[in-house]
Structures are given as C-alpha cells and as structure tokens.
Amino acid sequence: MNLPPKVTERAFARLAEINDGSEIRPLRVAVAGGGCSGFQYDIRLDRAEDDDLVLESAGQRVVVDPVSLPYLAGAVIDFEDELIGARFVIENPNATSSCGCGTSFSM
C-alpha cells in the first residue's frame, strides 16, 4: 500500500501567507515528464478537481492529481526559507536521483 504524501505545518503556514487577503486557492503538486532527470515537479496555485487527493490544515489545501500520486507516495512537501531563496520543496523517497536544483528527479 502506498502512503499518501504529507505536508508540513511550515508549508501550510506559507500557503496561508500566500492566500492571505485573497481568494484561497490550493497548492497543486504534480509530477510531469521532463526536466534534466526525467521527471519534474509542477508546483502552483490552482483549483481542486473532483478526483484530486486533498490534504488540508487550517483551511489551506494541497492537492495532488491521481496520475501524480504514485510518484509522490510517502513524499513530504515542505517550505524552505533560506538565504539563497524561499521555495516549496519535496522530499521524495521514490526518487533515485535528482538534479542540483531539486525540481527534477528520476525513479
């Protein structure tokens, strides 16, 4: 059985900051073919579809489509705010390798 992805409280908190004062839109995390390692993450504000997995905390939602779900099984979606930049990151136990920037991976 594949475990669903998890979202950290830090990621939900950053999403709440992004959505503050505007229409609350979920963060979509998807996997697509491409990138320098074979697959790449697509992370964007979007709307939920009927067949999406919805992960929710304090009114904020992260959605994953059914095609991407197997690639993200057991993954942790987090937010990093470092001196070199701030971004949503994915710790993916299914990835056998990834590129230096962390947006592309192989399985």
Automatic annotation (TrEMBL):
Ranges where the Core domain occurs: 6-102
Pfam families (alphabetical): Fe-S_biosyn (PF01521)
PROSITE patterns tied to this protein: HESB
Protein name: Iron-sulfur cluster assembly accessory protein
